[in-house]
Design brief:
The protein is built from 12 helices and 4 strands. By secondary structure, it is mainly alpha-helical. The chain has one domain. It has a two-stranded antiparallel sheet with strand order 1-2. A two-stranded antiparallel sheet has the order 3-4. The longest helix has 23 residues. The N and C termini lie far apart (79 Å).
Length: 281
Amino acid sequence: MALNAAQRPAPPLPALQRKDLWWMSPMVFVAVFTAFSIWVTFRAFQGDFYSTIRQDVLTHLFSANGWLIPNYLSPLYSPTLDPKWILMGYHVSPALYILVFPLSFRLSCYYYRKAIYRGYLADPMACAVKEPAPLDKMRRGKYTGERTVPFIAMNFHRFAFYAAVVFIVVLWKDTIDAFFFMSPDGSWHFGVHLGSLVFLVNILLLTVYTFSCHSWRHLIGGSTDCYSCTAMSRTRHGVWNKVSFLNEKHGTWAMASLVSVALTDVYVFLVTTGLLKGAWF
């Protein structure tokens, strides 16, 4: 005798059906993003050891040994702003009003939104994986998308993209500066040191991440009804295809550039504190 729908046993939970390592992605994201957040918070409030040129002790150290002085500026403190703001008797670190722009771009990014929802909120942790029972009951029927506070702020992502492009231009200048070194007599010389390569890798990853963004993809090919009607639309379609190719790995570029920003800042920190010494750095 056939069973009707009400008599059939309930299917197993999706989490038990999946045999792949679905939990690996949210776990890695939480570990990496948490470590990044801790380090960036520490550095933002530190307000020091972010520029080799501005570090007087380091300048004297390099000059005394006849080394070329590197021109490295941490991406967390670029562009260099020094308005001498004082709050409750303390100088406000310039990183605190610089980081708000690139961080707003990252935190509203489609990839980061997905990763944060899955990794930190378990909402849900992966496709075809049920939310934890208490959260499932609490959230059921309360989902409003991103139309209410605080998630409505995510809709400003395309505006944050414009600010991110400005920072890309600034960081490209910093990268070029990282290939020029000052001699003890004050003259500048072109060179390729380890730090130069660190800066170059960082800006390349940041550029690919920024311009593989969905907002840039929309600006290139969006609001177009016919890709073959005019020469301009055909050109836009060709560029849109190339951007779409980069967009397929947007999550990879997002995490790689996140790690590269942190490592570049760590590198500058080690050099400016004197933990890394030598003419080649």
